[in-house]
């Protein structure tokens, strides 16, 4: 199975950033791989390996990212985890929106013909949650979103995708090729069933850490460099951020001397009782 995985870089969500010229100042940002995309990489590796012998993979995993040169750091991290190849499409962060990303992915999918495109359900920096859906629409492929489990069936011609919904877990059968966006629970110990790894095998919770051997091997794995122009994609964005504001500062709490005073303030000021 050939799998294409997206790997967006985002600023560290725990880092406190400042505003500059009505936008977030990213000049000192600590960049990292989007958490949901990291989960998608892990899912792709589990889908293409036998857990008893992870070094032998049936299929190939390619990771792709759009961005400036230093995006290569996040791509190398995915290669160190075990992905086989990386693609970087040169673009400035301010030149990208979900439509441009989907168009670029569309071109790569038509060229490389993967069986499955795996993406994080959203990027934690903007929580857009629409690039995967746009890509599926452009390709005319079936899609499944918010996947918490994937099972390969019908001899690799389809997948059963579990989706967490309010009433429990919804199972959808999706014919390949397809686009699947993954949620947090895709990295649960038994969330991936590929037909080769024993069904009762339990992976460690969470994505794997890159080994020293994997880090060394990543330096020699292919990293293809492309531009939007080479793909015939215009960097003209249709959705622009008009304004960015920091949330209001949190007000200090009030101390009360007695339970009676607390109840009174909850009733008269907070109006919650």
Describe this entry's structure for a reader.
- The chain is an alpha/beta fold and 273 residues long.
- It has one domain (2-244): HUPs (Rossmann fold).
- It is 25% helix and 29% strand.
- It has helices at 35-48, 72-81, 98-112, 131-139, 212-218, 228-231, 259-268, and strands at 2-6, 9-11, 19-20, 23-24, 31-33, 49-50, 53-57, 60-67, 85-90, 116-120, 143-153, 158-165, 168-175, 178-182, 192-193, 223-227.
- The strands form 4 sheets. Strands 1, 8, 9, 10, 11, 12, 13, 14, 15 and 16 form a 10-stranded mixed beta sheet that branches. Strands 2-5 form a two-stranded antiparallel ribbon.
In total, the number of domains comes to 1
What is the tally of beta strands? Answer: 16
Largest sheet: 10 strands, mixed
> What's the N-to-C terminus distance?
58 Å
Oligomerization status of the protein chains? single chain
Proportion of residues in helical segments: 25-40%
CATH architecture label name: 3-Layer(aba) Sandwich
